[in-house]
Amino acid sequence: MADEQPGSEIEAIYREVQRLYGVPYVSAIHESLATQPGFLEWAWHEVAPAFRTGEAQEAAWAAADHIQPPRLDPIPWQALQVWGLSADDVAAVRVAAQTFQRVAPVNMMLSALIALRLKGVAPSRNEAVSTSTIWEPPSSLQGTPPSMVDYERAEGTTRDLAMLFATERDGEPFVPGLYRMLLNWPGLAAHFGAVMVPRMRGQAEAYDALRRCIDEAAPTILRPAFDEGPAFAAPSPTARAYFARISGTYRQTSPELVVASRLVLEALPAS
To answer: What average pLDDT does the segment 78-104 reach?
Structure first.
């Protein structure tokens, strides 16, 4: 690691995360943690073994499978066309929803594992795992998800639509990525804002159950790092405080995204 140029370790982490998650890009939580000098490198060194065995992903996905939200009525192709979506657009929305189905619960597990290591909780498994394991992650999703609309700079209808999906982070409205992608088609976003958001708000018990399931599983899958010794300096108090804020937001929004991504997929035409 000493021979690598600054930033190359983060780039290597991003590549490994994409492979182990089976998604074409790195989610915002990793990028946010990378803004704190040395934090992402330390955190990934501490928790990566649980992801390399697949235990973290499988436990997170199994926990998410227990959520069974009410289904939405299918959206007719005619409505999608009126809202300006082509077949390629619908395929892109489908990729976006599939991505968040994979990513949202796994990021909850990532956050839970990092929190345990910050508290000094030792790995429950004694056997270390190398970077080469027998577990094979799912194939990366094919296709390109839509771009994310910058709702903070938007005005009028677009910003009003974004606020339908907003939660709060550090006293400011925060709109998760899936909804920002839907904003590319205001008609589609308005539809989901009207029929999906009320149903998601009625899933509080399911969200709490998912959080409990993740929290209960996390201590059982921590593993020691394969390379012994502290490869990275422990996080600073500033970085710890930043992680607490960020993880708190994702702990709130990730269960919602598990439900929202499923509802979006069920509402889209099959092909």
So the answer is: 95
Q: Which long-range contacts (CB under 8 A, 24 or more apart) does 236-243 make?
A: 236/36, 238/36, 239/36, 239/37, 239/38, 239/39, 240/118, 242/35, 242/36, 242/39, 243/33, 243/36, 243/39, 243/43, 243/114, 243/115, 243/118
- Residue 67 predicted with pLDDT over 90: no
Crossing angle of the two packed helices 55-65 and 87-118, in degrees rounded to 10: 120
CA distance 19 to 24: 8
How confident is the model over 164-169, as a mean pLDDT? 87
Which of 225, 222, 244, 224 is CA-nearest to residue 235? Answer: 244
Cα–Cα distance measured from residue 246 to residue 33, given in angstroms and rounded to the nearest whole number: 8
Least Cα distance to 230 among 52, 42, 36, 44 occurs for 42
DSSP 117: H
* Secondary structure element (H or E) that encloses residue 168, with its range: strand 167-169
Which tokens sit at 35? 């803004």
pLDDT at 126: 62
